[in-house]
Automatic annotation (TrEMBL):
It comes from the Bacteria. Residues 1-22 have a biased composition (Basic and acidic residues). InterPro entries: GAF-like_dom_sf, HTH_MetabolicPath_Reg, TransRegBhcR, Tscrpt_reg_IclR_C, Tscrpt_reg_IclR_N, WH-like_DNA-bd_sf, WH_DNA-bd_sf. Keywords: DNA-binding, Transcription, Transcription regulation. SMART domains: HTH_ICLR. Residues 29-90 form the HTH iclR-type domain. It holds the Pfam family HTH_IclR. This is IclR family transcriptional regulator. The lineage of its organism: Bacteria, Pseudomonadati, Pseudomonadota, Alphaproteobacteria, Rhodobacterales. Residues 1-24 are annotated as: Disordered. Residues 91-274 form the IclR-ED domain.
């Protein structure tokens, strides 16, 4: 995504007017805003009658009816004459599917990872599960001299990785049982979790608090905090993390850093059209 905030004054922005950053009422289309309120409301329901839609969107039935008829002409909403209700239309799915086809997880993650690195001062990572391991997809390195380094393509065991554990914590029992039946919980350091019962207990804490903590479980002297990223089906498809040396990520820093990490994961979830 291009950043035009610091463009030279003589350069014209393509695709948007000079008053782009002016979000005052004079630059909004009220009728369109009202229509979008109706459209968004219907997208969250299984179908409602006109009177309910008008009440829930705080608009008059006459206004809402005109909006619905207009949206119906575009295929964005449909009217069920039998039940006398309006619902979201098939065209809305087509448009949404186009967005998803254009959405790249890695591409959407880059600016979010950069902001996370700048906010925490630590290396920010993006990873996903691949055949029982964590596959690192992207990384924005810290400027500090001592740093974690997981170049794209690096594989890491899930049980000793912040991202790996946060993804395990989101698995249902069937998938989790398959993981334990296939994977060996290897001890990499004295802090590695090598017993299934202990790891399951750790995963329960991760689910409860919304982030994971790798406390020197893969490499002595390195810690990692991770949070899950969800797709449109509410499934955890990736994890965002920050990692760095214990000298900078102390135990007292975990709560503070977890706020930044979980916020970045939510931002990425939203950016790809996901739902947590």
């Amino acid at each position: 995504m291009e950043n035009h905030e610091n463009e030279p004054s003589g350069r014209k922005s393509r695709g948007r007017p000079r008053d782009w950053n002016d979000k005052t009422a004079q630059n909004t289309i009220k009728s369109l805003d009202r229509a979008m309120a109706v459209f968004e409301y219907l997208s969250e329901t299984q179908g409602e009658p006109l009177s309910v839609i008008a009440s829930e969107t705080d608009q008059s039935p006459a206004t809402v009816y005109r909006i619905l008829v207009t949206l119906e002409g575009r295929g964005l909403v449909e009217f069920d004459a039998g039940e006398q209700i309006w619902r979201i239309g098939a065209r809305a799915f087509v448009i949404g599917a186009r967005f998803l086809r254009q959405t790249s997880l890695v591409e959407r993650a880059r600016p979010i990872l950069r902001r996370l690195m700048e906010a925490t001062g630590e290396t920010a990572n993006l990873g996903a599960e691949k055949n029982g391991a964590v596959l690192f997809l992207s990384q924005v390195e810290t400027h500090a001299s001592i740093r974690a380094f997981f170049p794209p393509g690096t594989l890491s065991p899930m049980h000793s990785s912040g991202i790996g554990k946060v993804l395990l914590a989101q698995m249902d029992e069937e998938r989790l049982s398959r993981f334990f039946s296939r994977e060996e919980l290897t001890a990499f350091t004295e802090h590695s979790i090598t017993e299934e019962a202990a790891l399951r207990q750790n995963l329960e804490r991760i689910r409860a608090r919304g982030f994971s903590f790798d406390n020197e479980e893969k490499n002595i002297g390195m810690r990692c905090i991770a949070a899950p990223v969800f797709d449109a089906n509410e499934e955890a498809i990736a994890g965002v993390s920050v990692s760095g040396p214990t000298s900078r990520i102390t135990l007292e820093d975990v709560e503070r850093l977890s706020v930044a990490v979980t916020s970045a994961a939510r931002d990425l979830t939203k950016a790809i059209g996901g739902t947590a």
